[in-house]
């Protein structure tokens, strides 16, 4: 590089640094304003996530960006990232407490992953929370005595037995709820064990979400919904979307959404392990989509084997979904072995048609994710 180029670049980079510093000041200003919004929402008990406001604001900024010759997706990416930051920050203010005369909440299994998250959210909303973990049963009677709600969040394999054996003497008006990943059996067990209000939840997220904004919580009604309506409002204030489902419908969906998917991810990892694949090499030769896929597979193995074993083994019927997958795999492999390229293309087209408009929609969505994956590269 000659001296003139170096000087020109230095000058321009200095100007860019200045603009970036102005951006930092603007970001500070925006975060402060959003914090004020958080305080107002907290006082009024409004949900931290306002989908209409968010969509309208993004649409406006995209329009304005277009007029200014800025890619609309750029401002959308920036604003979405900023909004995520704001949702995380809203935890600092806490949340409005919807039910002020509940008594205490007892979280059975509260030292665990999901139990800790819900303990945090309930405490941030002003509830008094007591933990009853595996070595605390000698305190059960006194903890349950003034409990307004008992929330069960122990490993799936012991959930129903624990409910049936240990949660039969709760106060009459106490709400009995759970967070188990399957719903039919736990809801049934809760209804049998307790004559008061019963409700089943399945948070469709792991403990590392940061904020509940935009996360989904499935609710399966058990008994006396009017007694726990406040809890649904409380969860909505945390930003989550409540999806109502019959326990059986939920569990049917989980056979594909969780059991089949986790099992195939497990086999994918098992295969890489048995093949003694070199992960460094895989990464070196990865397209962004493969990098993302590897991250999703690796992520499973960073979590609890018991949790995933329980999810996969919980429902007999999941075996059908998994067996069907194996059959389809075998048939597709046979097609490959006999070199039937035309049939492969024909089946590909059939599946593409079946995906319909979702295929291009998923392509657009994944493109944005892949660009983020690429942004994160450091070398
Ligand atoms: N971890 C996750 O990503 C999600 C978990 N869930 C559900 O949440 C529930 C709990 O899962 P995690 O928090 O991941 O499990 P975890 O293993 O982290 O926590 C379970 C807790 O239960 C305690 N425990 C075990 N036996 C007990 C007993 N007899 N009495 C009292 N406490 C006992 C354990 O000491 C532990 O603190 C499960 O039903 C799971 O399906 C639901 C959605 C996501
Ligand atoms: O974080 C992940 O990878 C998860 O898949 C979390 C998870 C685990 C179990 C559930 O029932 C729901 C969500």
Please provide a written account of the structure.
This protein has 379 residues and is α/β, with parallel strands linked by helices. A seven-stranded mixed beta sheet has the order 2-1-3-4-5-6-7. The two termini are 23 Å apart. The protein contains 15 helices and seven strands. The radius of gyration is 25 Å and the shape is globular. It has three domains: 3-93, Chorismate mutase (Chorismate Mutase Domain, subunit A), CATH 1.20.59; 104-245, 3-Layer(aba) Sandwich (Rossmann fold), CATH 3.40.50; 250-375. The mean pLDDT is 95. The chain has helices spanning 3-44, 51-67, 72-93, 113-124, 140-145, 156-166, 184-193, 225-237, 247-274, 279-284, 288-300, 305-313, 318-337, 341-355, 358-375, and strands spanning 104-108, 129-132, 147-152, 175-178, 198-203, 216-223, 241-244. Residues 108-109, 111-115, 133-134, 153-156, 158-159, 162, 179-181, 203, 206-207, 304, 307 line the site of 1,4-dihydronicotinamide adenine dinucleotide (NAI). Residues 181, 204-206, 299 line the site of 3-(4-hydroxy-phenyl)pyruvic acid.
């Amino acid at each position: 590089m000659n001296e003139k180029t170096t000087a020109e670049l230095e000058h321009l980079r200095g100007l860019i640094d200045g603009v970036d510093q102005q951006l930092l000041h603007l970001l500070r200003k925006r975060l402060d304003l959003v914090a004020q919004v958080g305080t107002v929402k907290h006082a009024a008990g409004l949900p931290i996530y306002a989908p209409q406001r968010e969509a309208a604001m993004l649409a406006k900024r995209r329009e304005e960006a277009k007029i200014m010759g800025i890619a609309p997706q750029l401002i959308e990416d920036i604003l979405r990232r900023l909004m995520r930051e704001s949702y995380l920050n809203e935890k600092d203010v806490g949340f409005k407490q919807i039910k002020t005369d509940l008594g205490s909440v007892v979280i059975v299994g509260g030292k665990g992953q999901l139990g800790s998250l819900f303990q945090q959210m309930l405490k941030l909303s002003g509830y008094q929370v007591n933990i009853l973990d595996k070595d605390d049963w000698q305190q059960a009677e006194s903890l349950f005595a003034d409990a307004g709600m008992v929330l069960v969040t122990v490993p799936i394999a012991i959930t129903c037995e624990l409910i049936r054996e240990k949660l039969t003497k709760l106060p009459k008006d106490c709400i009995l709820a759970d967070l188990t990943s399957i719903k039919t059996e736990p809801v049934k067990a809760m209804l049998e064990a307790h004559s008061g209000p019963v409700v089943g939840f399945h948070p469709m997220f792991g403990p590392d979400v940061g904020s509940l904004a935009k996360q989904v919580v499935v609710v399966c009604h058990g008994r006396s919904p009017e007694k726990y309506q406040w809890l649904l409002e409380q969860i909505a204030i945390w930003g989550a979307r409540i999806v109502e489902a019959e326990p059986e419908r939920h569990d049917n969906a989980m056979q594909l959404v969780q059991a089949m998917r986790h099992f195939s991810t497990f086999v994918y990892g098992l295969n890489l392990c048995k093949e003694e694949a070199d992960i460094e090499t895989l990464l070196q030769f990865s397209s962004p989509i493969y990098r993302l896929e590897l991250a999703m597979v690796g992520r499973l193995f960073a979590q609890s084997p018991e949790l995933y074993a329980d999810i996969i083994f919980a429902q007999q019927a999941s075996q059908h979904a998994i067996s069907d997958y194996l059959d389809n795999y075998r048939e597709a492999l046979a097609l490959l072995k006999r070199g039937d390229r035309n049939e492969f293309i024909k089946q590909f087209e059939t599946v593409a048609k079946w995906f319909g408009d979702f295929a291009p929609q998923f392509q657009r969505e994944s493109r944005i994710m892949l660009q983020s994956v690429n942004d994160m590269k450091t070398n």
